[in-house]
Amino acid sequence: MRYNFSWSASIKVILMCAALLALVLAAVLAIRPALADIAPPQMPPGSNPEAETIDTKVRMMEEKVVIEVLEETNPDEMGTAWVWAEFQMKNMGDVPERMMVRFPSSFDDGISGYPEIENMLVSINNVVVDTARVNRVGVPDNWNDPVQWIEFEVLFPVGEMVEIEVEYGLTGTGEYPFVSYGYLLETGVGWYDTIGSAEIIVRLPYAASSLNVFVDSSPWGRTTAGANLSGNEVSWYFEDFEPAYENNISIAMVWPSAWNKIKEEQQTVWDNPQDGDAWGRLGKMYKEVGRLRRGTRTDQGGDCLFNMSVEAYQKALELLPGDALWHAAYADLLVWDSVYGYTRSAEARAQFIEALREMYIAYTLDPEEPYVLDYLESYVFPREAVDLEGGEYIFYWLTQTPTLIPEEAAPTQTQVLPTLVPIVTATPEPTPVPPTQPPVPTLEEETPQEDSGGIKLPFCGSAILFPLALGIVAGFPFLIRKRN
Fold it and tell me: Predicted confidence band at 142 (pLDDT cuts at 50, 70, 90)?
């Protein structure tokens, strides 16, 4: 059988295949999870020391590591920490060993950069020793490129305990308002036998809770399982273990400067409980530390912060019912939490419609407000929900016109003071009943409780719980606008 060959026909087939492939790739990309957050470049973590030789008889008997997160001197810079670590080493063999001990001091950040740990100081038996920089491939499997290490010589006499102490500065990884720190235990795998015990402590400049530490999974960051939260410390303890990748420590948390703003706004609300703008700013602050690039935090603390932000905004609108910006800011909170789920969930759709209703109120109160107009022009709401028609925005999805409260309507004169903000801890205890004249609210205690329907909810707010607010919009750059 003979076949007729046509170049023009072949080219057409090739072009059709290319177009089909492009459509397939577009479809694949379109179904990527919408809530996946982009990871920022990695900064170097702290780490255990590495032995020079693989046949050493020197064992790491115990170690203690303290990572102290510092208050930012410049709120616009990434958070920094100071690391102090002590290692008790013992030669279990029959002959003395002299070797070079190493710490990785640099890291491939994933974008062709190699940031370094700063100001490392090493002591052996309380005597500061000289160190040298060497270029070598890292121990973890994913370190493929040579990076900077710091090494120093140590003599390990037979049967004697040798104390190695190191100190250095550590820069966090992340983007406002979240930061993470890491510590590699796996670099200690080369020492003899198991590690006897290890205590890792991250000391925060504020009380640790699920609101400011990601104690369970989140699309943004990871805190190593088994963390104990007590006071201002997050800690882990291990005994008789062979260090591996799964033992490495990480903590994801809120920037200290962002958390301090929350406490400042709390104080303002406490001092001025009838100040609607103060309640609104408080709601914005809760919103800022409870949201991600896409959607809101899905961990326990994120759920709590969302509820607290809702209550703060509602209080702001009770006091300032005619304020278009606070209606729009509240709408933004509801949108951010429901925009990726309103097509799949009746609950999310109801919340999305409520957000649309709040934006409608804001638009009706002030149709020239730039923040509202920018939001409506941004395609956050689909065009079938709201669109420009004849120079005016029509809210098609609103079957009933929301009741607008006149701006001149006087707010309630009921004196409502904010309650203490509880904090979820690793070992919840019943929340004590506050005294008649409670002290200035703090974020120190929190415990779960059940509602009247028997559904377990985090005890993070009540009808009068004051929420904390920060940026009206963290995700849409064009929506950022300050209020005096």
Answer: low
